[in-house]
Amino acid sequence: MNLISAKEYLHLYDSEKHVSGEGTCFDGKGNFYCCVMGDGFPKILKIDPWKNVSVFCELSTDDIPCGLIEHQGRFCCCGLNGILYVIDEEGTILFKKESLYQNRKLKMNDLIFIEDDIYLTDFRGDFLHPDGGIFILKAEDNYEKPHLFLDGLCSPNGIAFHENDLFISETTRADLLRISLDEDLQIKEEFGIMPIYSNVGKGGALDSIKMSKNGFLYQAVMAAGKVIILDREGLELAEIHVEGKNRMTPNLALNEKEGYGLILAFGTDGLDLMKFEIEGGFKMKAAIFDLDGVILSTDDLHYEAWKKIADQEGIYFDREINNRLRGVSRMASLEIILENADREYSLEEKEKLAEEKNGYYRELLKTITPDAVFDGVRETIDALKKKGIRVAIGSSSKNTKFILKQIGMLEEFDAISDGNNITHSKPDPEVFLKAAEMLDIEPEDCVVIEDAIAGIEAAKAGKMRAAAVGDARKSKLADDCLDDIRDLLNLFD
Ligand code: BG6
Ligand code: MG
């Protein structure tokens, strides 16, 4: 078994009264959030590791926070006495519920999102009562009422989800349960119990579980003051030690994209945040660039060509409509333009118009020279290649190769996936998945650089990391927002 030491520290509080509550999470942008107690009400801190620490949200209750999650810009925090908050990304509390289940409060301890629904553990009654369970709060009924999902668990304290398996830590028996779900998230197999007494010790508070995308479980152990790493069968692989600290909050968060995890530890000298490396964490091997709007701008040329068609047909068309065509295939673009037509067009007519537009567009493309390439693009691609990163194009345009030739970049890429080899346009991930396949690299190991919201959606649907430039920076789904394409290199350090 390996021993891993947490090396970097960020000192948060001097005093022991600022112990951590039990909620920690990352958002999609690499910011870390943790619940802390203190004078007055508990609060959620936002930490941009290792720089700025600020109060993200004051929780207007004296309930002890015990679970925190983030999902697409929405935070959910639960308290030990059953309070549930939903918080937006500005830190504003959208709603707060005090009593979720008839007249009884749930004693919540941890929660996760599975798709849009929130699963939360509930240990009802006292700790030793074998009467805990898991509830689901359905997104469709606005998380109003809990639906019982699993009953009769023994003080479940932490939950994690990986592929179709749900992992639950049972504090009282210090066991780890594994439950297989089918595709509709119904229980498929009876759960088996994996006793992991050996390291934890009977009765040790086995709390937070975080699942890494490589299928390892990271589990924080309160009483014994450590974090253990298990495989999915419950076998211990490594142990994380925090020097000089013997008390650790039972919570941790993983930032796999960057390849590290954070633990909160406290003792008489206060509260510290500690960083440990995740071995075999997220390692990007390829960058897939969208073409139009990322390598160069063709917006004006598309506009000019479509405008000609629209004027010919007497259809209203402006720049704003043109913006909606970004990342969208030629035929789908035409459909958007025809929304303003006062008659129906047959398929044949549509095909003819699309072809005609392409004729105009190709003429305009002939005027493009290597100077059209955005600043920083060539040097970024060169630097990536020097780092051994594979580079590809993933574009909906059937003119991709023609454009690359015009700008003198046809030979720059290890793979070109474009409008000619796909049947589904973005936001479908097909064009990017094909690029990954051509490179023989797993989608999870690719980052997509996109200027269109549809492109960011496509990257995420393909399980890739999504870096947004231009307009796409508005997308909540983007993992990274780049002000300058050269910033892409920071993701590969
Ligand atoms: C995308 C552009 O790259 O390609 C879209 O962002 C365009 O605006 C699409 O509609 C299809 O392009 P083409 O060159 O095949 O007509
Ligand atoms: Mg684009």
Keywords:
single chain, about 500 residues, alpha+beta, Neuraminidase, Rossmann fold, DNA polymerase, domain 1, 3 domains, six-stranded parallel sheet, five-stranded mixed sheet, 9 helices, 31 strands, about 20% helix, binds 6-O-phosphono-beta-D-glucopyranose, binds magnesium ion
Brief sketch in words of this structure:
With 493 residues, this protein is an alpha+beta fold.
Describe the structure.
- The chain has 493 residues and is α+β, with helices and mostly antiparallel strands.
- It contains nine helices and 31 strands.
- Helix 2 (299-313) packs across helix 5 and helix 4 (330-338) crosses helix 5.
- It is elongated and about 75 Å long.
- Mean pLDDT is 83; it is low at 125-129 and 196-204.
- It binds 6-O-phosphono-beta-D-glucopyranose (BG6) and magnesium ion.
- Magnesium ion binds at residues 290, 292-294, 326-327, 451-452, 455.
Instruction: Please state roughly what percent of the residues sit in beta strands, choosing from under 5%, 5-15%, 15-25%, 25-35%, 35-45% or over 45%.
Output: 35-45%
Helix count?
A: 9
Chain oligomer state: single chain
* Integer-rounded radius of gyration: 26 Å
CATH homologous superfamily heading of the largest domain: TolB, C-terminal domain
Structural class per helix/strand content? Answer: alpha+beta
How many discrete structural domains? 3
Query: Based on DSSP secondary structure assignment, what is the total number of beta strands?
Result: 31
Relative helix content: 10-25%
Ends apart, CA distance between termini: 28 Å
What hetero molecules are bound to the protein chains? 6-O-phosphono-beta-D-glucopyranose, magnesium ion
Low-confidence stretches: 125-129, 196-204
The CATH class designation of the largest domain is Mainly Beta
The largest β sheet comes out as: 6 strands, parallel
CATH arch. level architecture of the largest domain: 6 Propeller
Characterize the overall form.
Answer: elongated
- CATH fold annotation of the largest domain: Neuraminidase
Enumerate the strands of the largest sheet in spatial order, edge to edge or round the barrel.
28-27-26-29-30-31
Nearest-integer average pLDDT: 83
